[in-house]
Structure formats: C-alpha cells, structure tokens
Amino acid sequence: MAALQCVCARGQGVAGAGNQGTSLQDAPVAAGGMVEGVAVSASGEVYEGVRVALAELGAGAGPEQTLTTGEDGVFKFTNVRPGSLRLTLTSTGFQPKAITATLRSGEIWNAGDVVLAMGVTSSDVHVTATQDEIAVEQVKVEETQRVLGIVPNFYVVYDHNAAPMTSRLKWQMTWKTVVDPVTILASAGIAGGEQASNSLPGYGQGAAGYSKRFAANYADTVINTVIGSAILPVMLKQDPRYFYKGTGTVSSRVWYAIANSVICKGDNGKWQPNYSAIVGGLASGAISNLYYPANDVSAKITFEGAALGTVSGAIQNLFQEFVVKKLTPGFRKNGS
C-alpha cells in the first residue's frame, strides 16, 4: 500500500501500467477528499465505459462507491472519507487494475493515467503477437495523430518501449506524410510567402514563379522525408520517430528534447547518433541545388541549411514534449 502516492509505471507495453501517478496534494476539498484519474491504453488512448470502484479498507469501512469513465476516460470521486483506500478499474476484455493509497482529510489523490492491460484468457491454443504485429498496431495509432485534429503528427510515439518499425512501416509512414493534403498545402503556403517577399528572385514572379517556388518547397519536403525517415533509417536500422518522455523535471525534459535532434533510438532499442537526420539533411540540401536558382546554390548554403534543420528539429521536439500532446485529440488536455 502506498502512502500519499499512487505509482503506475508507463511504457511497459500492453501489460504495463500508466505513468507515475502524482502525489496526494494538500488542496482543500469540501466535506472530504477527492480521488481522480483517467483510464488509458498503453499507447495513450483514453477508455470510455470503464467501471471504477473505490473501497475503504480496514475497520469501519463504508460501502463501495462505483462509477464509469466518460468519453474522456476521466473518473472522479468527491467527498471521500480519509483513510486507506483501494481503487479498482475493470472492463470487459481487460485485466483488472487495483491501486491502493492512504488519503488524509481534505486531500486529492490523483492516480494519473491508469493503463489497462489487455485481458488474458485460457485456451487450448495460445497465440502471441509477434513484435512486427505489435509494431503494425502501434503505427496505426500514430498515423491517426493530428494536432488540432488537422496537422499530421505521425512521427511521435508515446510508448517508451514501442516495438521498432519494420522497413515497410518506415516507408508506409513516409508515403502517408508526403501525400497528406496538409503537407501539400503547407508547401503552397510557404511558396506564397516567398512569392510575396520575392525570395529566390531567380524564379521570377507571376504564375510561373509561384509554380517553381511551390515545386521546390514540396520537393524539399519529399526528398528530406524520404531520405531522413525511410532510406537512411532502413539502411542504418534507426527509428525516425520522437519518443515522448513526459516525465521528470522540466529541465530534464528540455535537455532530452534538444538531444533528440542529434540522437535517436536504433531498431535494437539503444540510443545512438541520429545519422539518418544529420546525413539526410545534408543529402537533401545537396540535391536541392539541382533545382534552386544558381545564385542560391553553394556548399556553404547546403551546410547552413543542414545546421538550421538540426536547430529546427530541436525546437520541434520541445513543442512535442511540452505542447503538442495537449493539442492532439484523444489525449488528456493536461498531458501526463
């Protein structure tokens, strides 16, 4: 039994628990304490309709309280008597999850994200999903992730122990990214800004100039994504995704996000230099010299572009770590 804290470990696959629950906080609650949390899957999806039972333990225990989670997966008990408590989450097809803690008068027990593991049934035939099959299901979830429900956010994984992507999955995610309408519209918008500021004047103005700018921008996106997220990751056996940390101090998460612009997970699960992104940035920059105006082509510009790409990657990782999850439907607005 935990005193003043509920601990639920995230990142242990489908049999794991959620992220570490937060400590009981000394926040006054009228006529008793409060118990709250959210039921989620190992990949961070919320579960609706989960039965949650709150039982008092020890002598003089009152009747058990029950409720079911809403569409956001949240459960909340108010006016809870202080003392030792057991929280039990059950749902058809999942293993029951029980957590204990001690609640003092006027406190809040925030159990955090409580991960429900898939249930195990007895049978004469036991079928175990292979690592590749698990990876396929995880990628299916990632390919539904969109910021504000619009902008693709496929290359982020919220399970620290996610199965490595197969070569086919790396190519699949790359293809989905480059043909996504939002990706194409982004290139069109950038081209419009360049046209308005007369950036890359060698392309000229008018419809022809805009077409060249759009084609160059979209080509940059396609080439950079194909090389940095498919070709090199397949060859070097590296994972092109950002592995969301979500726990620890703010400073540790900041350094983690920045470091992930130059390091990545290998398909063997070990951290290593992110050659795919670094070399991919240089290679795509060099290729772009073939279609950019002559005045905007040089080795210096190529290396400067690669360096800016690394800095941009660090900034994007910071947004992923602290902002993007809150804006992605299907996850709690307060993150984890």
Explained architecture:
The protein has helices at residues 131-142, 167-178, 181-197, 206-236, 250-259, 275-288, 299-322, and strands at 2-3, 33-40, 51-56, 65-68, 74-80, 83-90, 97-103, 108-115, 146-147, 151-152, 156-157, 242-243, 263-265, 271-273. By secondary structure, it is an alpha/beta fold. The chain has 2 domains: 2-115, Immunoglobulin-like; 131-327, no CATH class. The strands form 5 sheets. A 5-stranded mixed beta sheet has the order 1-7-6-3-4, with no helix packed on it. Strands 5-2-8 form a 3-stranded mixed beta sheet, with no helix packed on it. It has a two-stranded antiparallel sheet with strand order 9-10. The longest helix has 31 residues, at 206-236. The two termini are 23 Å apart. Mean pLDDT is 83; it is low at 1-30 and 332-336.
What topology does this entry show?
Layout: E1 2-3, E2 33-40, E3 51-56, E4 65-68, E5 74-80, E6 83-90, E7 97-103, E8 108-115, H1 131-142, E9 146-147, E10 151-152, E11 156-157, H2 167-178, H3 181-197, H4 206-236, E12 242-243, H5 250-259, E13 263-265, E14 271-273, H6 275-288, H7 299-322
Parallel strand pairs: 1-7, 2-8, 11-12
Antiparallel strand pairs: 2-5, 3-4, 3-6, 6-7, 9-10, 13-14
Helix pairs in contact: 2-4, 3-4, 4-6, 5-7, 6-7
